[in-house]
Design goal:
nine-stranded mixed β-sheet; binds zinc ion; three-stranded antiparallel β-sheet; alpha/beta
Length: 317
């Protein structure tokens, strides 16, 4: 069963003080940097011949994006590591940047996006990776209670391989929430621009972000709704909570990214997406390019993710 969060005002789950603290960090998200970072990542993918992997007949690209992302983190001066999960025919490099919590470092808020792409992958998923970079910038020099861990997953497009191996290796981690982004930069104000996935009802204008939660993250989903409505420019959000088994028809299409590997372990997880092929005709084609994105929309999503990560990392025990 789906419990739609819809457009109804979200309950006030964060106090005024918590809300304004989260929004203050979110306001550091910068449209020009997001635009430049998407362009930088796309340029790296464009220069990478990639590899055509059976059964797909299009170039899968990762190493150019990986090198560019590592260089960007190095330039920020943050510590990063590559978790090598190679084996079973796939070399997998997940990129991890950790901001340790000041008082509850063992409790982890995970913010994730995959960095591998088909073709140049502007929306899918340079948009999400650009937000990871903004989150890292915003966290530099700040203190928060829980650890915030940024993970850029490898090999999502070929079957969630990077995230599957990550969550298999990290079963002992005390992950309080996963916020996963996959394709968060495409929006349209035109009537009829949004198609609803089977079993799901959505507005016909594709100018909102979709947020899917599993049962155990229902409260965090409501907090994200509260934050979305409180942004300098409020972000329209369509949310839903899936059932425990995630087999309801409406949630099927929203399992198609790395968060589903966390959901499979019962870890609280949120998934943010512009709904890809239900809105974006460039999905998984060579025309998924930077000039098709809406950078105002991407900025709002970036602010929501930064505010959400901050609020969850500062949550009272
Ligand atoms: Zn994707």
């Amino acid at each position: 069963m789906l419990a739609a969060l819809g457009c109804a005002p979200a309950p006030e789950l964060l106090t005024e003080g918590q809300l304004s603290a989260a929004l203050a960090v979110a306001e550091e998200v910068d449209t020009t940097r997001l635009t430049d970072d998407v362009a930088m990542l796309v340029e790296a993918h464009a220069a990478d011949p990639g590899e055509v992997v059976s059964p797909w007949d299009r170039p899968h690209k990762r190493r150019g994006g990986e090198a560019t992302l590592l260089a960007a983190f190095a330039k920020l001066g943050v510590d990063f590591k590559i978790e090598d999960h190679s084996g079973e025919g796939w070399e997998v490099h997940n990129i991890v940047v950790e901001f340790p919590g000041a008082t509850r470092p063992d409790e982890v808020v995970l913010v994730t996006a995959h960095y591998d792409v088909w073709y140049q992958g502007a929306d899918d998923n340079s948009s999400g990776v650009a937000v990871l970079l903004e989150l890292a910038r915003a966290l530099i020099g700040k203190q928060h209670a829980r650890t915030i861990r940024i993970v850029a997953f490898d090999a999502e497009e070929v079957g969630l391989i990077g995230s599957a191996r990550y969550f298999r290796r990290h079963t002992e981690d005390d992950v309080r929430l996963v916020i996963n982004m996959d394709s968060v930069g495409f929006a349209s104000s035109e009537a009829g621009s949004q198609v609803a996935p089977p079993g799901f009802t959505l507005p016909e204008v594709g100018d909102f972000i979709v947020l899917m939660a599993n049962d155990v993250a229902a409260r965090e989903a409501l907090i994200m709704g509260q934050l979305a409505g409180a942004l300098p420019e409020p972000l329209a959000l369509q949310g839903a909570v899936g059932s425990d088994d995630h087999r309801s028809p409406g949630t099927g299409d929203f399992h198609r990214s790395d968060h589903s590997q966390a959901w499979a372990q019962g870890t609280p997880g949120l998934f943010l997406t512009d709904t890809t092929n239900f809105r974006n005709e460039h999905y998984h084609t060579e025309t998924d390019l930077p000039d098709t994105l809406d950078y105002g929309f991407l900025t709002q999503v970036g602010q929501l993710v930064v505010a959400g990560a901050w609020a969850m990392a500062e949550e009272a025990e």
